[in-house]
Amino acid sequence: MSEREHTNTATGGAAGQSGHSPAGRLQHLFEGHRLTPTQRRIAHCMVRRAADVPFLSSVELAELAGVSQPSVTRFAVALGFDGYPALRKHLREVTPAEPTAATKANEYQQAVEAEIANLRHLADLLADPAPVERAGRLLAASPTLPVIGLRAAASQAYGFSYFAAKVHPDVRLLDEGGTMLADRIDAAVRAGATALLCFALPRHPREVVDALAYAKSAGLTVVTVADSAFAPVAGHSDLLLPAAVGTGLAFDTACAPMLLGRVLLEAMCDELPQAQARLEEFDVRAAERGLFVE
User: Fold this and answer.
1) Residue 184: CB partners within 8 Å, gap ≥ 6?
2) What is the pLDDT of residues 105-135, one digit of tens each?
């Protein structure tokens, strides 16, 4: 798959929403460009602050993204503009809006508002359901389904695997790194796996990038839920579904990736003919065992 083909796949529904949201238009602007890790960081920051970006100076954008001001200039040139002023002028023309008003909310409220914005952005992306539906078909068709999530993403992978195991015959959670990770991928392939699902959240462990590269070399189709279409795992993903994380607190918050995982479960269930029967069977057995307190 070429770099351009990959980028278009990774941004998925974002391109389809280019006419409806500032974030979607920015995603569309970045498509097809080879971006360095630093440039992907700038792009990610711009998508998260899409409403404010047309009114930010290069210095302000550099501070928000945690990069140098010359990096912002080089980024604008990489997108085909003469410099950052030309890029900002373009953004003002295609996204006429007022800068976001300063909020008087405390830091905890701001963190919640940021997560609400992330969920709204996810809703915009899901207006085009094709990428998620394709992912659901890939996951459902895999007789054995390995699910990777290390470190910060381990809880996302566990939550998906817990529910997926109720409808899928063979779900294998890979939430620990180390030398055994490649062995477990090999075992899944021997058991018939054709696809692998990965949850990748910052900070991105090198082990995850290496594991996805190994999975692809083993013939697996890699579906990834990541915090950004420009995440380090993008180059090793056949289908990347972005869901932003909140960064306003000491530790990132991941409401949007968790919800996207549940949406993927729904799409997978739609492709599994026995899913409803298995859920009903579980409910009967749970009642017989008195598993839950009513």
Assistant:
1) 146, 172, 174
2) 788 888 898 899 889 999 999 999 999 999 9
Sign of CA dihedral 233, 202, 95, 121: positive
Low-confidence ranges of the chain (pLDDT < 50): 1-19, 98-99, 101-103
**Rounded to an integer, what distance in angstroms lies between the CA atom of residue 210 and that of residue 228?**
18
Return the bridge partners of 172, or none: 146
pTM score above 0.85: no
188-193: Cβ within 8 A, 24+ apart: 188/144, 188/145, 188/146, 188/220, 189/218, 189/219, 189/220, 191/143, 191/144, 192/142, 192/143, 192/144, 193/142, 193/143, 193/144, 193/145, 193/146, 193/220
Planar angle of CA 208, 134, 261, nearest 5 degrees: 50
Q: Check residue 250 and give its pLDDT.
A: 84
